[in-house]
Amino acid sequence: MQDASQQTGTTALQLVLAWGFVGVPLALGVLQTLINSMKLFQ
Amino acid sequence: MSTMMQTQASGGLFGFLDRNRTIAKPGFSRWMVPPAALCVHLCIGQAYAFSVFNLPMTRLIGITQSAPGDWKLTELGWIFSIGIFFLGTSAAVFGRWVEEGGPRRAMFTAALCWAGGFFVSAIGAYIHNLWIIYLGYGVLGGCGLGIGYISPVSTLIKWFPDRPGMATGMAIMGFGGGAFIASPLSVYLMSIFRTAHHVGVAPTFVVMGAIYLVFMMVGAFIVRVPAPGWKPEGYTPPEVAQKLITKNDVFVYDALKTPQFWLIWWILCLNVTAGIGVLGQASAMSQEMFPGKVTAIAAAGFVGLMSLFNMLGRFFWASTSDYIGRKNTYFVFMVLGFALYCTVPYTGAVGSVEGFVLCFLVIITMYGGGFATVPAYLKDMFGTRYVGAIHGWLITAWSMAGIFGPVLVNYIREYNITHGVPKAQAYNVTMYIMAGLLVIGFICNLLVKAVHHRFHMKPEHDAELAQAEVAAAGEPAGA
C-alpha cells in the first residue's frame, strides 16, 4: 500500500503550472463578469 | 460497440490511452487531478455561452443585418437543444465505456468530439449549411459534452475518498465557469476576424476548436488513476458502516433497477427544473417585475452575477455536503428553495430589488449545487466502481429539466398576461409552482434509503475486478 507521505514525485512547480493553466483563464473570465455585473448597482 | 472501441484502443497507436497506462506512480500528487478535470470541464462549459454566436449567425449573408436566406433565431436555437440532447444520450450510452476504459481515453475522445464539432460547424458556417452545424456542434459536440462531463467523476472520487463532494464540485464548477472564458473569447475572436465580407463566425469556430483541443488534451495527458489500495495520507475509512454510505458497489444496469436511482433522478430533475427556468428568464423577469427600477443594462449585470453564483454554488454546496451529508444538503436545497421561491412575489410587491436579487442569487447557488453534489450522492448509494456510468444515466434528468423548466416559466407567464394579470405579477404563480416542485423533491429525498444488498456486486465479481486492477498495476507507464 502506498502512502502519500512517502511520495515526492510531483513537484510544486508542476502543481503551480497545472493550476495556473486552468486558474488564470478562469480568473480572467470571472473578473470580466464581475466588472459587467457591477452595472446592476449603478 | 464499447468492446470494439476498447479493442481498437488497447494497443499500438492508442495504447497510451489505456487505463493501466494511467495508473499513478508513487509520488504523484492527487492535486494534479482536479486541474486535469478542469481542463475538460472549462472547455465543454462553453455550451452555456453558445448564444453569443446566435445573432452573428443570423447575419452570415447580410453581414450588417439579416438578409433573405439568412438563418432565423428559432432555427439556430436547435443547435443548443440538439447538443444538450446528445449530452444526455451520450453520457448514458457511453457511461460504462468511460468507466471501464479509464479517464484518459474518455477525455481524449471527448476532446476529439468537442473540437471536431467546432471544425465541422466552421464548414457549416462557411458554406452556409445549417444541417452541418446541427451535425457538428449538435451531434458531435454533444457527444463530446456528454463523454467529457462524466469522464473525470469517478477518478476524482477515487483520489479524494475523504472529500468526494469537494473533488467533484471542483470539476463541475469548471463546467459552470467555462462560459466566463468562452463568452469574451468568442466576442474577441469574432471582432478580429470580422471583415466587410463576413462576420467571422467560421474562423472563430476553427480557432476555438483548436484551443479546446489543446486544452483538453493537456487534461488527458496529466490525468492519472490511483494505484489499487492507495489512500490519502492520514485517511482511515470509517470502521463503522454509515447507513447512507455504502462500502459495496452496484453494477450500472442494476443501479437503474433500484428505487434510489429514480428518486435521485427526480430530485435532480426537480431541483434543476426550478433553477433552469428562472436562469433563462432572469433578465426579462427582473425588468418586468421592477419596471423603471431595473434597466436592460442592470438586468444583464444581474444575469452575469447569477452565472457567477451558479459556479460558486457548485463548489460551496458540494464541499459542504462532505460535512453535513448528501441527503441533508438536498434537504437544505428543498426547504430553503421553497422559502425563497415563496418570498420572491413578496419582494416584487414591496418593490425590493435587493431582496429579489438576494433570493435568486441563493436559489442559483443551489441550482449549481444540485449538479455538483449528485455524483457524491450516487457514490454514497452505489459505490465508486460504476459511479461515472450511473452518473451518465442520471444526466438524462438534466435533459428533461432543460425542456420542462423554461416551458413552465414561459407558458405560465404568457397565460397570465393574456388573462389580464399585470406583467409585474405574471411570474408569481410560476414561483409558487417552483416551490411546489421542491416540495415533491423534498418527499423524494425523504424516501431515499440505503440500497438493498441484493443489488450489491457479488464478492467473486469484486475479486475478478481486484485481480484485474492488480495485474494492470504491474505495468504503470506514467506517461
- Ends of chain B: how far apart? 27 Å
Largest sheet of chain A: none
Shape of chain A: rod-shaped
- Given the C-alpha coordinates, what overall shape of chain B results? globular
Can you tell me the residue ranges of chain A where pLDDT is under 50 for at least 5 consecutive residues? Answer: 1-7
Taking the alpha carbons of the first and last residues of chain A, their distance comes to: 58 Å
Structural class of chain B: mainly alpha
CATH third-level topology of the largest domain in chain B = Growth Hormone, Chain: A
State the share of residues found in helices of chain A, binned by percent. 55-70%
Oligomer: heterodimer
Biggest interface, chains and residue tallies: A-B, 32 and 41 residues
- Could you state the CATH homologous superfamily of the largest domain in chain B? MFS general substrate transporter like domains
**Which sequence of SSEs, written as H and E, runs from N to C of chain B?**
HHHHHHHHHHHHHHHHHH
Radius of gyration of chain B: 23 Å
Q: Give the uncertain stretches of chain B in residue-range form.
A: 1-9, 472-479
The averaged pLDDT of chain A comes out at 81
